[in-house]
Write a structure and sequence with these properties.
- With about 375 residues, the protein is an alpha+beta fold.
- It contains 10 helices and 22 strands.
- Helix 1 packs parallel to helix 6 and helix 1 packs across helix 10.
- The structure holds flavin-adenine dinucleotide.
- Flavin-adenine dinucleotide (FAD) binds next to helix 1, strand 3, strand 14 and strand 19.
Length: about 375
């Protein structure tokens, strides 16, 4: 089979297919892994709760376990079990606790009176409650890519082709054409080109998508402050002056990272990763408003990242491309939560590899991926 794109989705699909005995050729426009990929970052969050959405929550319930299994396959530590805590109005915290429990996920409520002592390094809104997902945490994203690439490089059935940009597709033939004019085809073709997908798929795109650009702020904390942060989970703020913000605590060699929906905006093309001063200032205000640990040795940096979302659901899209019996699948939109669900997509691709023209429904929207 042929896979285009070596972000987390393409790499894990290749791993899963190779494990099931399929020969795989993986084309990537840059190096493998590529620092320009959306997946190439210090961390991504894995959590189960999708606020108020029982179906999406239930389908995300096994994700932390899937990632632990992958750690064993790839032989690398990829997951930090920090827990994930949503800060909510108390009535919403109760309703969503029921939703997590119905999905069989370990969770606990932190009442408003105890929230400040649970998050001593943050300013939390008065009267808010916490909903703590015990098994959620942080995926060490770029380490995932490096570990998967290393594992694949050692597999006799796998051919990695970095610096091969695909410029055209023939979905019904399962074929791709490279920038140098060469052609490749497979029994199954899987297009996993992230934010570049709308450009490559063009009219073959199975549904309309929208491109987003989001800025993130990183704060490198001095080693002596690490202990203070060790007990802090990932925090998602859903009420108060910083509603829409999220913060990942530092640890395991990674920085504190934060962002907010305020700095997520539509974009017309995948451009640079540089953050314009206006968005950086918004994030610096958030840092100073939210974090009480004023570490004088801290170093701040920022980065922009791009993703496509299904225009209708705001989430991910995994679909057959071309005629109903074409051997081509694509993941043209990842939504805001497409890293954590990559093992699910990889499983579906590997299943389709067994019967390329039958394995996957004509087109379906992946419910779990909207964040
Ligand atoms: C700010 C931000 C925060 C996020 N937070 C989370 C989170 O906490 N949890 C979570 O689960 N998800 C999160 N996501 C989403 C997640 O990062 C993405 O869904 C995921 O990384 C997408 O992986 P991908 O493999 O589809 O795409 P990418 O990682 O972008 O990989 C696509 C690859 O295809 C290659 N490529 C493109 N075009 C071609 C071509 N023509 N020929 C050959 N190669 C090509 C690219 O070079 C790239 O390497 C976040 C996204 C953003 C932007």
């Amino acid at each position: 089979m042929v896979i285009v794109g070596a972000g987390v989705v393409g790499l894990l699909a290749a791993v899963e297919c190779a494990r099931r005995g399929f020969a795989v050729t993986l084309f990537e426009q840059g190096p493998i892994p590529n620092p320009r990929a959306a997946s190439f970052d210090q961390h991504r969050v894995v959590r189960t709760l999708h606020l108020g959405d029982a179906e999406a929550t239930a389908s995300a319930a096994g994700l932390p376990g899937r990632w632990r299994d992958l750690e064993l396959v790839l032989g690398a530590a990829l997951f930090r079990a920090t827990g994930v805590l949503a800060v909510l109005p108390p009535e919403e915290a109760h309703a969503n606790l029921d939703l997590l429990r119905a999905a069989g996920v370990a969770a606990e409520l932190v009442p408003p009176a105890r929230l400040p002592e649970r998050l001593p390094l943050l300013r939390v809104p008065a009267g808010a409650a916490g909903l703590h997902e015990v098994d959620g945490g942080i995926l060490l994203a770029s380490r995932v890519l490096v570990a998967a690439a290393k594992w694949l490089a050692g597999q006799p059935l796998v051919r990695l082709r970095p610096h091969h940009r695909v410029v055209a597709l023939n979905p019904d033939a399962g074929a791709v054409r490279m920038a140098d004019g060469s052609v490749a085809a497979g029994d199954l073709l899987f297009v996993a080109t992230g934010a570049w997908s709308s450009r490559l798929l063009g009219d073959a795109a199975p549904a309309p998508t929208r491109l987003y650009r989001q800025s993130m702020l990183y704060r490198r904390t001095s080693p002596r402050r690490q202990a203070a942060w060790a007990a802090t989970p990932v925090v998602l703020l859903r009420c108060g002056p910083h509603a829409g913000a999220w913060l990942l605590p530092p640890g395991a060699g990674t920085d504190l990272k934060l962002s907010t929906s305020e700095v997520c905006r539509p974009a017309d093309r995948v451009g640079s990763a540089r953050t314009a001063p206006v968005w950086r200032r918004t994030l610096e205000r958030l840092l100073h408003g939210l974090v009480t640990d004023a570490d004088p040795a801290a170093i701040i940096s920022t980065k922009d990242c791009y993703y496509l979302a299904d225009r209708v659901t705001g989430g991910a899209l995994f679909a057959r491309v071309g005629s109903p019996s074409s051997p081509t699948l694509a993941y043209p939109a990842c939504g805001g939560g497409g890293f954590k669900t990559a093992p699910l997509i990889a499983g579906e691709v590997a299943q389709a590899a067994a019967d390329p023209r039958m394995g996957v429904p004509g087109s379906h929207r992946v419910r779990v991926a909207a964040s």
